[in-house]
Amino acid sequence: MKATGIVVEYNPFHNGHLHHLKQSQIQTSSDITIAVMSGNFLQRGEPALVDKWTRAKMALDAGVDLIVELPYAFATAQASDFAKGAIFLLDALKCDTFCFGSEEGSIASFEHTYNLLSSKKLEYNEAISQFVKQGISYPKALNEAYKSISRFSEEPLVDLSKPNNILGFHYLEAARQLNSPIQPATIQRVVANYHDDARETESIASATGIRKVLFEEKELSKVHSFLPSTSIAGLEHWLEHAESFGSWERFYPLLRLIILRQNKKSIAKYAEVTEGIENAIWNAAVKNEHFQPFMEQIKSKRFTWTRIQRMLTHIYTDFTWDQLRAIEYPTYIRPLAMSSSGQAYLQSIKKDLQLPLVSRVAASKENILLQLDIKAANLYYLGLQTNYGASMVGSDFRQIPFRQ
C-alpha cells in the first residue's frame, strides 16, 4: 500500500481540511493517508478547541486512515522543530510522500528556496543576527534576512512571510536533513488564508476564523457551513459533555495561579522564556483578571503573540528548558484512531518499525516524552474547569485508539 502523510492540528476539522485531504490523496496517488496530529496543546501556543480524541475521531470519520499523535514537545515548538518531529514520524511510518497546503502551491519553489538557504547558510544566519540586534522580533528578522539573501537566486522562491509556506519549507527541510526518501508535495490553499475571518457567503473558512465565530457568537450553528457533517457531530458531542471549548480565556485562572505562586526568577526556567520576559509575565498576572489584557500588557515588538503563548503553554504544563534541551526526536508512535485500511497498513509495516508502537500508555511508563503528553492531557482537562474535564483526568490510561 502506498501511503501519504499529512501534518495537522484539525482545530477543528473543516471543509478546507477535507479539500486538502482529498487533493493529497489524488496528487500522490496514495492508497492510505496518515496524519500526524498535535495533541491537546498546539503550535501557536494555545489549548485545542476540543481534545485530541475528539479531533482524531473527526479526522477518521472524514476519511483519514491513521491518526498518530505528535508529542507535546514538538506540537508546541517553533516551526522548525514542529516540522522535524512530524516528518520524523511520517518517515518512521514508511510514508512514500507527504503533502502540505501552502499559499505557494508549487513544490519546485520550495526546493529552490531550500537549495538557496543551504548554500548561503552563513550569510543567512549572519543577516538574522544583525536584524535581531536591531530589536525586531525573531520571525520578522528571519523574513528580512531571507529578503536580503533572495537576490542570489534567479529561480522562483517561496514567500516566507506566509504562515503555511513557512511550515511547508520546514517540512521539506526536515525531510532533507533526515536524508529521508519521503517525497514532498504541496497543494494551494483555497478561499481562506490562515488568519482570515469566516465569511457567511463561503463554504471554506480558516480554523482561526471558525474559532473566532464560536468564541464570539457561542453558537455552533453559525459555523455549520464551514464544517463537514462529521465535524459538526463531533463538536456537538463535545459540547454536550464538556460544556465548553478549550481556550486561554478559559484556562487563564489556573495559568494565573501557576504564575503567581512562584517568584519572577523561577519563571525563567520554563522553555522559551527568555530575555527577562519572566518579569513582564509575572507583573501582568498580578494586574489582569482576564487573558486578553494580560497578553496585551506583555506583547512587544520583540515578542510576538504566538511566541508568548508558547511560553505560557510551557509554564502551564511545567515544561522546562532542561527538558526541552534533552529532546531530539520522537521516541514512539502513538495511534489515536485508524480505519480498517490504516490497521492493515500498520500491521504490514509493524516488523520494520524503528520506534515502539504505543496503543496503551500504561505499558510505556518510562518514556519521558509520553509522560509529558499524559501530563499535558491531564492539565488540559483541568483547565476546562467542568465536571467533564475533571472526570477526564487520567483518561490517557483508559482510552484506546478509535477503530473504524
Automatic annotation (TrEMBL):
<keyword id="KW-0963">Cytoplasm</keyword>
<keyword id="KW-0436">Ligase</keyword>
<dbReference type="InterPro" id="IPR014729">
    <property type="entry name" value="Rossmann-like_a/b/a_fold"/>
</dbReference>
<comment type="function">
    <text>Catalyzes the formation of N(4)-acetylcytidine (ac(4)C) at the wobble position of elongator tRNA(Met), using acetate and ATP as substrates. First activates an acetate ion to form acetyladenylate (Ac-AMP) and then transfers the acetyl group to tRNA to form ac(4)C34.</text>
</comment>
<comment type="similarity">
    <text>Belongs to the TmcAL family.</text>
</comment>
<dbReference type="InterPro" id="IPR008513">
    <property type="entry name" value="tRNA(Met)_cyd_acetate_ligase"/>
</dbReference>
<feature type="binding site">
    <location>
        <position position="164"/>
    </location>
    <ligand>
        <name>ATP</name>
    </ligand>
</feature>
<keyword id="KW-0067">ATP-binding</keyword>
<keyword id="KW-0820">tRNA-binding</keyword>
<feature type="binding site">
    <location>
        <position position="189"/>
    </location>
    <ligand>
        <name>ATP</name>
    </ligand>
</feature>
<feature type="binding site">
    <location>
        <position position="101"/>
    </location>
    <ligand>
        <name>ATP</name>
    </ligand>
</feature>
<keyword id="KW-0694">RNA-binding</keyword>
<dbReference type="Pfam" id="PF05636">
    <property type="entry name" value="HIGH_NTase1"/>
</dbReference>
<feature type="binding site">
    <location>
        <begin position="7"/>
        <end position="20"/>
    </location>
    <ligand>
        <name>ATP</name>
    </ligand>
</feature>
<protein>
    <recommendedName>
        <fullName>tRNA(Met) cytidine acetate ligase</fullName>
        <ecNumber>6.3.4.-</ecNumber>
    </recommendedName>
</protein>
<keyword id="KW-0819">tRNA processing</keyword>
<keyword id="KW-0547">Nucleotide-binding</keyword>
